Amino acid sequence: MSDTLTEVQAVEKTDAEAPTAPAAEAPKPAEAAKPAEAAPAEKPVPAEKPAPAEPATKAEKPKAAARPKSTAKKTRTVELTLTVTGTAEGEWQADLVHGTQRVVSGLVIPAIAVAKAAKELHEDIAEGIESVLEAARDQHRTRMEELEAELARVKAQLAELSE
Protein backbone atom coordinates (compact mmCIF):
# COMPACT_ATOMS: atom_id res chain seq x y z
CA MET A 1 0.00 0.00 0.00
CA SER A 2 2.86 2.37 0.66
CA ASP A 3 4.05 1.75 -2.91
CA THR A 4 0.68 2.92 -4.25
CA LEU A 5 0.78 6.03 -2.09
CA THR A 6 4.25 6.85 -3.35
CA GLU A 7 3.09 6.44 -6.95
CA VAL A 8 0.07 8.68 -6.35
CA GLN A 9 2.21 11.37 -4.76
CA ALA A 10 4.67 11.17 -7.65
CA VAL A 11 1.88 11.52 -10.18
CA GLU A 12 0.46 14.51 -8.31
CA LYS A 13 3.87 16.20 -8.35
CA THR A 14 4.28 15.64 -12.09
CA ASP A 15 0.77 16.98 -12.74
CA ALA A 16 1.53 20.11 -10.75
CA GLU A 17 4.86 20.62 -12.56
CA ALA A 18 3.37 20.28 -16.07
CA PRO A 19 0.85 23.12 -16.46
CA THR A 20 0.72 22.80 -20.26
CA ALA A 21 -0.97 19.40 -20.17
CA PRO A 22 -4.57 19.53 -21.37
CA ALA A 23 -7.30 18.76 -18.83
CA ALA A 24 -8.97 16.18 -21.06
CA GLU A 25 -5.98 13.79 -21.02
CA ALA A 26 -6.64 10.17 -20.22
CA PRO A 27 -6.06 9.31 -16.55
CA LYS A 28 -2.72 7.79 -15.72
CA PRO A 29 -2.55 4.18 -14.50
CA ALA A 30 -1.76 5.25 -10.93
CA GLU A 31 -4.81 7.54 -10.79
CA ALA A 32 -7.06 4.79 -12.11
CA ALA A 33 -5.83 2.49 -9.35
CA LYS A 34 -6.50 5.05 -6.63
CA PRO A 35 -10.34 4.91 -6.79
CA ALA A 36 -10.28 1.14 -7.08
CA GLU A 37 -8.30 0.83 -3.86
CA ALA A 38 -10.48 3.35 -2.02
CA ALA A 39 -13.77 1.74 -3.01
CA PRO A 40 -13.46 -1.47 -0.94
CA ALA A 41 -12.56 0.51 2.20
CA GLU A 42 -15.51 2.94 1.87
CA LYS A 43 -19.09 2.37 3.02
CA PRO A 44 -21.69 1.23 0.47
CA VAL A 45 -22.99 4.03 -1.72
CA PRO A 46 -26.35 5.33 -0.39
CA ALA A 47 -27.72 5.83 -3.93
CA GLU A 48 -28.08 2.05 -4.24
CA LYS A 49 -30.53 1.77 -1.32
CA PRO A 50 -33.30 4.08 -2.66
CA ALA A 51 -33.44 2.17 -5.95
CA PRO A 52 -35.39 -0.75 -4.41
CA ALA A 53 -37.75 1.72 -2.70
CA GLU A 54 -38.82 3.28 -6.02
CA PRO A 55 -40.41 0.09 -7.39
CA ALA A 56 -42.31 -0.23 -4.11
CA THR A 57 -43.90 3.22 -4.61
CA LYS A 58 -44.69 2.35 -8.22
CA ALA A 59 -46.35 -0.83 -7.01
CA GLU A 60 -48.47 1.18 -4.55
CA LYS A 61 -49.84 3.52 -7.23
CA PRO A 62 -51.68 0.80 -9.15
CA LYS A 63 -53.21 -0.38 -5.88
CA ALA A 64 -54.57 3.14 -5.27
CA ALA A 65 -55.92 3.26 -8.84
CA ALA A 66 -57.55 -0.15 -8.42
CA ARG A 67 -59.70 1.11 -5.55
CA PRO A 68 -63.39 0.20 -5.95
CA LYS A 69 -65.57 3.03 -7.19
CA SER A 70 -67.71 4.82 -4.64
CA THR A 71 -71.38 3.94 -4.55
CA ALA A 72 -72.28 7.39 -3.22
CA LYS A 73 -74.47 9.45 -5.50
CA LYS A 74 -72.72 12.36 -7.13
CA THR A 75 -74.51 15.67 -6.79
CA ARG A 76 -75.47 17.02 -10.16
CA THR A 77 -76.02 20.74 -10.19
CA VAL A 78 -78.61 22.42 -12.35
CA GLU A 79 -78.16 26.04 -13.27
CA LEU A 80 -81.49 27.86 -13.21
CA THR A 81 -81.61 31.64 -13.06
CA LEU A 82 -84.87 33.23 -11.98
CA THR A 83 -84.96 36.98 -12.41
CA VAL A 84 -87.86 38.83 -10.83
CA THR A 85 -88.20 42.48 -11.75
CA GLY A 86 -90.62 44.97 -10.33
CA THR A 87 -91.57 48.55 -11.03
CA ALA A 88 -92.38 51.29 -8.57
CA GLU A 89 -96.04 50.89 -9.56
CA GLY A 90 -95.99 47.30 -8.25
CA GLU A 91 -95.94 45.45 -11.56
CA TRP A 92 -93.81 42.31 -11.39
CA GLN A 93 -92.36 40.09 -14.11
CA ALA A 94 -90.29 36.90 -14.07
CA ASP A 95 -87.68 35.52 -16.47
CA LEU A 96 -86.34 31.97 -16.16
CA VAL A 97 -83.13 30.81 -17.84
CA HIS A 98 -81.89 27.19 -17.82
CA GLY A 99 -78.15 27.26 -18.57
CA THR A 100 -78.11 29.57 -21.59
CA GLN A 101 -81.64 28.80 -22.84
CA ARG A 102 -84.46 31.21 -21.94
CA VAL A 103 -87.41 29.15 -20.66
CA VAL A 104 -89.81 31.94 -19.59
CA SER A 105 -89.64 35.60 -20.51
CA GLY A 106 -91.72 38.50 -19.19
CA LEU A 107 -94.24 36.43 -17.23
CA VAL A 108 -96.50 38.77 -15.21
CA ILE A 109 -96.63 37.86 -11.51
CA PRO A 110 -98.93 39.26 -8.82
CA ALA A 111 -97.15 41.26 -6.12
CA ILE A 112 -98.58 39.07 -3.36
CA ALA A 113 -96.96 35.98 -4.95
CA VAL A 114 -93.59 37.75 -5.00
CA ALA A 115 -93.99 38.72 -1.33
CA LYS A 116 -94.90 35.13 -0.33
CA ALA A 117 -91.99 33.63 -2.29
CA ALA A 118 -89.56 36.12 -0.76
CA LYS A 119 -90.70 35.21 2.77
CA GLU A 120 -90.16 31.52 1.98
CA LEU A 121 -86.65 32.06 0.60
CA HIS A 122 -84.94 34.18 3.24
CA GLU A 123 -85.62 36.97 5.71
CA ASP A 124 -83.11 39.34 4.05
CA ILE A 125 -84.74 38.82 0.65
CA ALA A 126 -88.19 39.35 2.16
CA GLU A 127 -87.07 42.65 3.74
CA GLY A 128 -85.70 43.94 0.44
CA ILE A 129 -88.81 43.04 -1.50
CA GLU A 130 -91.11 44.29 1.26
CA SER A 131 -89.47 47.72 1.08
CA VAL A 132 -90.16 47.85 -2.68
CA LEU A 133 -93.75 46.69 -2.15
CA GLU A 134 -94.28 49.27 0.58
CA ALA A 135 -93.06 52.04 -1.73
CA ALA A 136 -95.52 50.79 -4.39
CA ARG A 137 -98.34 50.75 -1.81
CA ASP A 138 -97.55 54.33 -0.80
CA GLN A 139 -97.56 55.41 -4.44
CA HIS A 140 -100.92 53.70 -5.04
CA ARG A 141 -102.42 55.26 -1.88
CA THR A 142 -101.30 58.69 -3.06
CA ARG A 143 -102.79 58.06 -6.51
CA MET A 144 -106.03 56.77 -4.93
CA GLU A 145 -106.33 59.90 -2.78
CA GLU A 146 -105.80 62.09 -5.88
CA LEU A 147 -108.48 60.14 -7.78
CA GLU A 148 -110.91 60.35 -4.83
CA ALA A 149 -110.36 64.11 -4.66
CA GLU A 150 -110.96 64.40 -8.42
CA LEU A 151 -114.08 62.22 -8.12
CA ALA A 152 -115.40 64.50 -5.37
CA ARG A 153 -114.87 67.56 -7.63
CA VAL A 154 -116.62 65.87 -10.55
CA LYS A 155 -119.59 64.87 -8.30
CA ALA A 156 -119.81 68.48 -7.06
CA GLN A 157 -119.80 69.84 -10.62
CA LEU A 158 -122.46 67.32 -11.64
CA ALA A 159 -124.60 68.34 -8.67
CA GLU A 160 -124.35 72.03 -9.68
CA LEU A 161 -125.50 71.18 -13.18
CA SER A 162 -128.44 69.08 -11.94
CA GLU A 163 -129.95 71.75 -9.71
Termini gap: 149 Å
Radius of gyration: 48 Å
Order of the strands making up the biggest sheet: 1-2-3
Structural class: alpha+beta
Structure, explained:
By secondary structure, this protein is of the alpha+beta class. The protein is rod-shaped and about 100 Å long. The protein has helices spanning 2-17, 29-41, 50-65, 111-121, 123-162; strands spanning 80-86, 92-98, 101-109. The longest helix is centred in the C-terminal third of the chain and has 40 residues, at 123-162. It has five helices and three strands; from the N terminus they run αααβββαα. Strands 1-2-3 form a three-stranded antiparallel sheet. Helix 1 (2-17) crosses helix 2. Strand 1 and strand 2 form a beta hairpin. The mean pLDDT is 74.
